[in-house]
Design a protein that fits this description.
Structural class: alpha+beta
Helix content: 40-55%
Largest sheet: 3 strands, antiparallel
Shape: elongated
Oligomer: single chain
Keywords: DNA integration, DNA recombination, DNA-binding
Protein name: Site-specific integrase
Strand content: 5-15%
Strand order of the largest sheet: 1-2-3
Pfam family, one: Phage_integrase
CATH superfamily of the largest domain: Intergrase catalytic core
Number of helices: 14
Family: Belongs to the 'phage' integrase family.
Distance between the termini: 105 Å
CATH class of the largest domain: Mainly Alpha
């Protein structure tokens, strides 16, 4: 009596064999999955979760067991047919972020992700495809007046952050079983380090401020930036009600930035600070006196410009100054300063960015022995480790002073 071959039940699924057009033998899996409405759906797959074909029966059998196990646990996800471009449009529309951050996300998605991977189904994304995108962007990613050149490693890493966050949300929503960006290879943190800073020495800072006092209509703005270390956008968002000239304190609560939306042009907007946390910093007496005089001068132009809700460094009509034009004004004034001081006795300051006034503030304070925690609080860093990492070049001076003080103390005691 011959025994009959045991047949699989529909719920167990099966492995099938097929031949590609090129004659290669491949394997697929087939099984039935229940749907939420009580009906069932037959699933047929020829590729794994990384979009790779199964080239052996053993691999396909393992994939089938994994799929059935996920079905039992309620964790199985059908491969999404939605393209990455379609998904990213939906994802970014649902984010609750500041206007400038949203505009930045949309710009990078539109210019740097969708042209290369926008038509790829979510289920077909692989770490290799995403890594290839990063390498492409590094060599030929610019879409502005420098088209044909590569994006910086820092920008590509930022794009990776956007894509990884978006795909992580797809995993949470059940559209993907795992995030392919997790195993992609963006530029390393070391490769994407921030642009090199160029802080001034105390003499260079003094030389520029002395020159600006006589030659620049924005002297008070440059002085406040140098003496507080606040960011450009934070300075331009200051209102008189944020400054207590009697107690000598300044509350940094907001920041002004540029938002660019395709078809709408650039727009100046006000939002929270970079860390989304307000802070209060102390002002020195010269800064307080300068701000008092500045408020009187603004009030002499128009009483509206000296009201509590008026901008401290607004334009003549009381509106926000354009942040980028503000930075260009600093550069133009600095170039004039350098030309006039080039043959003088004072040390001509180096050509730096406006943001380097912030670095100068921090570096000078640290070189004077100020505790890094205090510097961190003034700058509005999320934590003191950022300050220590950013300004590590100034720390040896602090160490030398500390060692000298310890040595003097021990010598006195012997």
């Amino acid at each position: 009596m011959t025994s009959k071959k045991k047949r699989r039940s529909p719920g167990e699924g099966s492995v099938i064999t097929f031949t590609t057009a090129s004659g290669d033998v491949r394997y697929g899996i087939k099984f039935v999955r229940p749907l939420d409405d009580g009906s069932t759906k037959q699933v047929f797959r020829r590729r794994d979760e990384d979009n790779q074909p199964w080239t052996s029966k053993t691999a396909a059998q393992k994939a089938l067991r994994d799929a059935l196990s996920k079905l039992d646990r309620g964790e199985y996800v059908d491969p999404s047919k939605q393209t990455l471009g379609e998904y990213l449009d939906e994802w970014v529309d649902g984010l609750r972020l500041g206007a400038s951050t949203l505009a930045s996300y949309r710009k990078n998605i539109r210019l740097h992700i969708k042209p290369h991977l926008g038509g790829v189904p979510l289920a077909s994304l692989t770490p290799a495809k995403i890594t290839a995108l990063y390498r492409k962007l590094e060599t030929d990613g610019r879409r502005d007046h420098q088209a044909g050149k590569g994006l910086s490693a820092r920008t590509v890493r930022y794009i990776h952050t956007i894509l990884r966050s978006a795909l992580s949300a797809a995993v949470d929503a059940g559209s993907l079983t795992r995030n392919p960006a997790d195993k992609a290879k963006p530029p390393t943190a070391k490769e994407a380090k921030a642009p090199e800073m160029h802080p001034w020495t105390r003499d260079q800072l003094r030389a520029f401020l002395d020159w600006a006092k006589v030659n620049s209509a924005l002297y008070v703005a440059w002085f406040v930036l140098a003496m507080t270390g606040i960011r450009r956008g934070e300075l331009l968002a200051l209102r008189w009600r944020d400054i207590d000239l009697d107690t000598g304190t300044m509350a940094v609560r907001r920041s002004v930035g540029i938002v660019r939306v395709k078809g709408k042009g650039a727009e100046i907007t006000e939002g929270p600070t970079k860390t989304n946390r307000p802070r209060v910093i102390d002002l020195d007496e010269p800064t307080v006196n300068l701000l008092r005089a500045h408020r009187r001068e603004r009030g002499s132009l128009s009483l509206q410009l000296a009201r509590d809700d008026a901008l401290v460094f607004g334009d003549h009509e009381g509106a926000w100054r354009h942040p980028e034009r503000f930075s260009r004004s600093f550069r133009e004034h600095l170039i004039r300063c350098r030309k006039q001081l080039a043959d003088g006795a004072a040390e001509a300051p180096e050509l730096i960015r406006l943001h380097d006034l912030r670095h100068t503030h921090a570096t000078v304070l640290l070189s004077l022995g100020t505790h890094p925690k205090i510097v961190s609080e003034r700058l509005g860093h999320a934590n003191v480790s950022i300050t220590l990492d950013t300004y590590s070049h100034a720390l040896p001076t602090i160490q030398r002073d500390a060692v000298s003080k310890l040595s003097a103390l021990m010598s006195t005691g012997t």
